[in-house]
Amino acid sequence: MSGPLARLSAAVEARTPAHRDRALDGLRALALLAVPTGHWLLGGLTRDGGGALHNASPLTAFGGLAPVSWILQMLGIFFLVGGYASVLSYRRHRGPAGAWLKGRLARLGQPVLGVTAVWATLLPVLYAAGVPGTTLRTASTLVIQPLWFVGVYAVVTALTPYCVRAARRLGGWAAAPLLGAVAVVDFLRYGPYTDAMPSWLSVLNVLPGWLFAYQLGVSWGEKRIGRRGGWLLAVGGAALFAVLLVVFHYPASMVGVPGEARTNSHPPSLLVLALAAAQSGAAVLLRERIAKLLRRPALWAPVVVVNLSAMTILCWHQTAMLAAAVPSRLRAGSRLSAGWSVAGRAVPRAPEDAAARQSPGRPGGAHSGARGTARATQHGPQTDRGSGARPRVRPSPTPASRPRRSRSCGRGRRACPGVLPCA
């Protein structure tokens, strides 16, 4: 590498303190980049007949993509590194714990106030400009979605002094009661007593679910988790993950899927904690190798840039996706996301879709296989619009020619109104 990038990398290397833990920064950068990548690949938007945007996900049509979410769901790593970094910062602080906490929370809150102020100004302007209310609700949901993390992270950060005491007394086992608490709530809401349980019961998993990895990070920072503990976390977490999937039939996706009754992430289920344990164990075991790799200036400089932009990435990546979607002129029933594009190229088109695309009356344009399937499931009159020509109404297909839904689909027509393709 030569030129400006080489000079930039050399400058970053020269300004990096010798005691800097590069492995932690590398893990944090990896977890940070996984957030927008996951949202852009496994999320997306669809436009209805009225022109409004709705949330959509490739996982509704391509269930085989669920294992991708196992890789991209790295919030466990983020909380692990956060716990480690917090205990180091707390240990260096001289003064009352309240002053330390105030400084940490200020760093979290300022970027959130910025994105909130921008969207509080944009929403009434967009509404006055005629943007559909459904689109504005979708946009608000997408923008707020990543910000829940900031609130939860602020709460677990406030618990750092208590986490330190627990780590000093119990070591890595201090996280075990949190795992047990989530297991009990999951048993109550998914077990034999599920019909008698209130709907708000799952909210009880929010704090212990995300505090679990943070507590592991605090114990790691207190040097109470070594390689033996790393192996226990990696193997034990992977085994629990497999059992929950195969034996207890937890949903395979680590992110929410529109139309599904159960979700693993909001609030976190026991499957999320199992994945976090396995990821945490791998991080402990690979720490030295990651640090050695990041001694190369060309690899270290991007890690520094990502860490310096952490809150910007978290707060603004959904706004970036909306900025790409709104001017894209999506047609009714079409979808926009990187995940739809990848899935549409990876999965072969059905023969009837290919034939339909070659019909004389069908307008041109590049559509994914998923989109073709979705359009095939729509009913009612359809129109073709050519350039400069009057719309031509095509009659609905007759019952004999209408595509039939698979009996194994299990979705009623209300569950997938031309947006969620059936199998």
Shape type: globular
Q: How many H/I helices?
A: 17
How many DSSP E strands?
5
- What does the radius of gyration come to? 24 Å
Helix content: 55-70%
Helix and strand composition category: mainly alpha
Which stretches are low in confidence, meaning pLDDT under 50 for 5 or more residues running?
329-333, 339-343, 345-391, 398-423
Give the distance, in angstroms, between the N- and C-terminal Cα atoms: 49 Å
Mean pLDDT over the residues: 79
Largest sheet: 3 strands, antiparallel
How large is the share of residues in beta strands?
A: under 5%
Major sheet: arrangement of strands: 2-1-3
Which H/E pattern describes the elements? HHEEHHHHHHHHHHHHEHHHEE
Task: Outline the structure in words.
With 423 residues, the chain is mostly helical. The chain has a domain of 293 residues. 59% of the residues lie in helices and 4% in strands. The chain is built from 17 helices and five strands. The strands form two sheets. A three-stranded antiparallel beta sheet has the order 2-1-3. The longest helix is centred in the N-terminal third of the chain and has 32 residues. The protein is globular, with a radius of gyration of 24 Å. The C terminus is likely disordered.
